[in-house]
C-alpha cells in the first residue's frame, strides 16, 4: 500500500507540473528564509557563552546626564570594580581592559626586529584577567602569564605574524619604541564568539600610569576602562545593582553625582545584542530588534508558504474528487486517505527542503554582507543541525498538508462522484482571511522599505553645516607627518587644484565624539563636553561659519596651548551671552590660563542620529586625519600630487585616503543594509503571497464557472465578468491596507524616532504601496479571470 501511495503521489505531481512547481517554489523560499534566519539567530545569540563562568560575569556600564542629555557608556572608572569587590561580598573577582590611546586616534606601534606594525587591538589589562576569562593557552600558563609587569599575551594569529611558527615565549616586543614587553603566553584560536576583540593583552600598568599622568588605580577620572566583575554563583545582580547608588555617592566626584550618574550591571552574554551606548564599544554589536524583525519575517514567510500550499491543494481538489470517491467506494478508510495526502505533502516538503538548502547556500554571501556577519554554510551539514533542519522540513510538510488532507478525506462518495462537492464546500472565508494576512505583511514591508529609503535620502541631502564635497580625508598616525606637517601642507598649497589643508582628530560626522572633563568659568564642578582637536584653516576647509570672535591663527602663538573655540550650542548650555575671553581648561593637566577665543555656528559633528549639542575645539599637532579641500577638475592628478607629497615625508606608511562624502554615506551602512533586507524580504513576501492569490483565484474561478456560464448566456460581457472576479480580490487588498496602515505607522515611526533629524512619514508611501500591491494582484489574478470569462458556457452548463 505504501508503494502504491508513493507511486500515485509522484504521478499526481508530474501530472500537475505547474502547481507542483508553485508548491515547491513557495515552500522552498519559505524554508530557505526560515533556515537562513535560524542560522543567523543561532550565531547572534551564541556570543560570550564560551566562558565557564559566563552566567556570573558582568560588565559595569555608566549612565550620566551631560548637559541635559542622557548618555550611556560601556565603561567605568578604573577603581570601581575593585572597590566593589572590597565593599560587597557578592563580588568576588574583577578585571579591566584599556585600549591603548583611547582618547585619540593614535595607533600603538609594535616592533620585533625589523618588523613593525600598527596594532589597533592592543589592550592593557590586569593580572586577574585570565582568572575572569578562561581562554585556552597554546604556550604559557594562564595563572602566571600576567603576574609580572611588562608582560604580554598574544593571540595565535599575532604570534604567527611576528614570530612565524616558532615558539615566541620569552621574546621581547617593543611598544612605541619605549617599552619592552616580554611574551609570556600565546592563546589558542578562540573556539566560539566573543565581544572581546583583542590581539595583544599586556600587563603594563606603570606605562599606563605614565601615559595618563597619574595613578589610575586610585583615581575616579575618565570613563576609559572596560570593567568586569564576577559575582558569587547564585547571587542576584539586581540586589547588587540596588546598592550601587550608595556606591556612586561614596566614591564618585561631584561632576558625576551632580549629573545623576549611576552604574548598571550587564551580563556578558547580553552585551552583543542588548548594548545601545553613546559610543566606545569594543566591537561591533548586534541588535536584538534586528533579531526580532528578521525572525518574525522568516516565520511569516514560512507560514505564507504553508498557507499557499493549503490554498493550492484545496483549489485543485476537484480534479481528484472522483479519485477520493472511488477509493472510498472500494473500501478505503478516512485515515488511509489522510495518510496518502499527508505523504504527498511531506514528499513535496522534502523536495522543497532540498531546494531550500541550495537557496541558503547561494544566498548566504549576500546575507552575510547585509547583516554584517560571517555565517558558515558548513553549519548546515553538522549532524545536529541537519536533524533540526529535517525536523523543520517534516513539520512544515505536515503543517501545510494536514488541512487539505482532512478536507479531501472527508468527501462523501455519492457527492464527489456526482461533482456536488465543488459547490458545497464553504471554507473559502478561511482562505480569504489567510490571503488578507499575506498581503498585510507584504504592505507593511513595502511601506517600511519606502520609509527607510526616504529617510536615507533625507540624511544624504541634509545640510550638515559644513562642506562635505571634494574633501579628501587622509587617516594618519604618522609621527613623521606630525613633525613635518608644515612642510607637507606647503607642498600641497602649491598645487593650484588644492584650496585648503587642515587636520582634525576625528572622522567628522561619522562617529560620536568623546566627552572630556573641563573646568569652565561660572561652574564650580567640571563639565563633561564633547571635544575635538583641529588645525589651522579648519574653517576654510569645511566652509564653517564663524559667529563671534576668531578661529585659531598661526600668528597668535598662544592659540596652540591656551585657546578654545566652542559652538553656539556650547555657549547656550553654559549660559554665556558673551563667551569670548571666558576661562576654560581641561580637568586633567589643563592650562588654567586658557580662554575661549571664538564661537562657530552649529554643525553636525556627530552622525545625524544625534542632535547638534555643545562642542569644544582646541588646537593640537596632527592626529586623526588630514583634510584636503580640492577644487573641481582633474581629481586623479590632484590625488597623485598629494600622494607624491606624502611619500616625500612619510617613507614607511602607505598612502591611503577616502572622500568625506563617501565616508558620511558609510556611516549609515546599517540603515542601508536594513533597507536592502526589507527590499529582499518584501519581494519574497510579495512573490509568495502572489502564489497564494493565484491559488485563491484558481479556486474562485472554478467555483464560479457555472455562475459565469449563466451570466454569459444572459448576455454578460467578458470585460464585465473579469471585473466581477477582480472585485473580490480588490476588496481583500483594501481590507489588508486598512489593517497594515496603522501597524506600519506604529513600527516605522518608532524606528524614525531613533534619529534626531527625521522625515515625516506622509501619505505617499501608503499610496505607492497599495497601488503596487494592487497591480501585482491584478497581474496575478488576470490569467485565471480571463480564462474563466472566455470559457464556453455550453460545456460549463452541460452537466446541469
TrEMBL record:
UniProt subcellular location: Cell membrane
A GO-annotated cellular component = plasma membrane
- PROSITE patterns with a match to the protein in the record: PROKAR_LIPOPROTEIN
Q: Which residues form the MacB-like periplasmic core domain?
A: 20-245, 434-640
Regions crossing the membrane: 21-41, 290-315, 336-364, 384-411, 432-452, 677-699, 719-748, 763-783
For this UniProt record, the keywords arranged alphabetically read as follows:
Cell membrane, Membrane, Transmembrane, Transmembrane helix
Indicate the segments forming the ABC3 transporter permease C-terminal domain, all copies: 296-409, 682-793
Alphabetized PANTHER family for the sequence: ABC-TYPE MACROLIDE FAMILY EXPORT SYSTEM PERMEASE COMPONENT 2 (PTHR30572:SF18), MEMBRANE COMPONENT OF TRANSPORTER-RELATED (PTHR30572)
Protein name as catalogued: Putative ABC transport system permease protein
Q: Which Pfam families match?
A: FtsX, MacB_PCD
Q: Which GO terms describe its molecular function?
A: transmembrane transporter activity
**Membrane topology field:** Multi-pass membrane protein
